[in-house]
Protein 1
Amino acid sequence: MFNWIVSHSLHNRLFVLALAVLLLGYGGMTVSRTPVDVFPDLNKPVVTVLTEAGGLAPEEVEQLVTFPIETALNGMPGVTRVRSTSGAGLSIIYAEFDWGTDIFRNRQIVAERLALAREQIPAGVSPAIGPVSSIMGEIMLIALPLGSGTGAASPMQAREFADYVLRPRLLSIAGVSQVIPIGGDVRQLRVEPDTARMAQFGVSLTQIEQALRGFAGNTGGGFIDMNSREYLIRHLARTTRQEDLRGLAVAWKNGAPILLEQVAKVGFAAAMKRGDAGYNSAPAVIVSVQKQPAADTVKVTGEIEAALAGLKKSIPAGMSEPRILFRQADFIESSIHNVTAALRDGAVMVAIVLFAFLMALRPTLISLTAIPLSLAVTAVVFQWLGQSINVMTLGGLAIAIGALVDDAVVDVENIIRRLRQNRDAAQPLPLVEVVRGASIEVRTGIVYATIIVILVFVPLFALPGIEGRLFSPLGIAYIVSILASMLVSMTVTPVLCFYLLPGMKRLDHGDSWLVARLKRWDARLLAWSFPRARRLVMAGALAVVLAVAAVPFFPRAFLPAFNEGSLVLSLMLNPGTSLAEANRLGFIAEALIREVPEVIQVGRRTGRAELDEHAEGVHSAEIDVDLKRSGRDREAVMADIRAKLAVLPATVAIGQPISHRLDHLLSGVRAQIALKIYGDDTDTLRGLAEQVRSQLAGIPGLVDLTVEKQVLVPQIKVRIDHRRVAQAGLTPGEAVRILQTLTDGAH
């Protein structure tokens, strides 16, 4: 088959060259359209179920909401693990499926199971499936500072801009999965019943609730014909005026209405929140932008920045322009630039070495054509396989760059040798026959060598789980590019040799001076080695044994440490800390971090945003730190930040945004190493965890060693006196519902 390819390529020379030019053009177009990302697709199909259960304690959420849903989800086709987190008023369940399963089919299966589970959870609690997102999906953090001085925007104005202007605009961008604002104040029209005046007027809370439910609403009235025209009838009761709400009749007494404003306080107020944000030690709104799986991060980021530029005129007076706190595309562009530079430098070095050995321009150019053509073929195959341009695929190409010219060099050298011999022959053969014979002559050896090299990378495809997803694209890039170079050496290389080599002056000369000198040195080395063959073999075997014995002592890590240009800090206060106190300490932490010279800006997210899939309490904060380049290394900067935050009553863990997400993917926590202790008694588990922590504290290289704070938080328990509730004409359920409305509110 290989001989046939060589022969037909030489007989269709112009077609082969035209096809090569078209392939280069199409490959370049393909590269420009290929998605660019940090890593290959590491998204294991996961369906997230979020359930808001306002007012329920964590143990009630676990028993009444999480456990029934988990039970319904277990045993689904293709599910590998179901894990959950239960907090105050919130349940989050993650259903993980096998690699390669269809995420939309998985979501449909989960939706069917949720329909069955709804009968087992409390009334009014409705589970919702989260959007399809990526583990590396948080591609940008945008800070909306409130401004300073007189005339500064209020937290409510900033949040309204984020919710009603910025978020809808960003969600309209193709590739954006979710936009999650946190911080500021959410405006709501609040009714605060005055129990003393309610008792004075004899109005119950149930009467107020019933009146509010029927307060506003538009209805249709059908059609009416009038004067040969048809009119649509609309009944309009909806209003946004506070005066209309204050004048709502909630009851009647002695034929006169009792108005809402007589028994309650009505007005706009900030909604209760379980999270807040800060920017450079001042209140702010921070918006997290998440992308869809397989979306081009760099392209989506560019469209987001264009949208932000277009919204500058819509920013409320007194509010500063949006600041980009974190931009994942920076790391991607830097990584791609570095690897591309390595590819470029490698190609230049290959060209220099080739010219130094061949000492002729034409053979060098013929050999070098294998590099762009092989890369073009690889780009086309990437498009067919749905691969992205990332550090792993580019790494595979960087490894292969030196080997891409091997096949062509062997072909060119043998063709030059045969052309020289044919010129001196008594009866020279046609040039086509000489080139064909010389190329076929070395074909078997080239194919065997290529197969052997490829087999070295085949085990990468046997790696399971995330390891296989991460490293198999590297193997694909290497193998495809090597096979492409072999194909080029059988098609384009012989054709170029036919056109360029016969008239070359080097046919009149022998080897270049460098090759001639290396041959002389090689002959001397061989002459010295043969008498000492046994000792050299023993020395080589000893070197192999020593190398194998040294392997266990090398440091090992799943991935090398990256310098992402930014840090993410996890700040954990004591459970039970209020949001106001967490905010106060958060502002102090931001100010301390900004004292480090390398810090450009700091953004903080405390607690949980309304749409977030992370079940964090108000005692937890995540601080994003943007760094500038300096003479100090990353470890020194992190150590400086640790020292400054040591004065706070909190545990601190420092990482980097992308590495932090990889750690969470691998271990389920924000650390590279996680030890999990299982049992039924929380106090015993806590004691064992402290013992383990004290034993691990002395290990060199271990930093940010913390025990997850799962402790009892302060509670105020209101127990119902069933007898007195019955005397009041209420059921216990009605009593606790009324209490919930008075303390936590109702929507």
Protein 2
Amino acid sequence: MATNRTFTMIKPDAVENGHIGGILNMITEGGFKIVSLKLTQLTIADAQA
């Protein structure tokens, strides 16, 4: 059986408005399994690279 993986990025405004938990709940309730989670804040230089 093939395994499919996807990348999801939560936009900054959703983080600022406290929607991380709700978004993660929707993902798991949709039948997806979260295998890794990383919270990071990019510098302007990193974002432009």
Protein 3
Amino acid sequence: MGKISSRTDIIVLLTHRGFDQDLQLAKELEGVDVIVGSHSQTVPEEPVVVNNILISQAGREGYYVGVIELKLSKYKKVDDRLISTVAMTQEMPDHDRVMELVKYYEDTTGLINRKKFKRVFHGTDH
């Protein structure tokens, strides 16, 4: 990470290894600020910090949205961090920009199953 960290303000790793593997990875790394992981579908109840690295996962299939806020010092280093997980509910209104993106990717790739997407974001079965 030495070459990268000397040229960046924040390093965020996106992983698909599972929560336990992210915990182990954090023990072995230096200079990383956040690991945003997936695969194990974990929703930590409290913020998890290992080796000064914030580790986040937000469950599965869009039932939750993870929110990470980083406050930088005047030297552009992480001074403070907050993390939360917001449960998506049927009462939440559609977000116009998100729906535009969903439509765009569905139209161009055909890879999004709108029926499942609507169930995840508007259903109550989670």
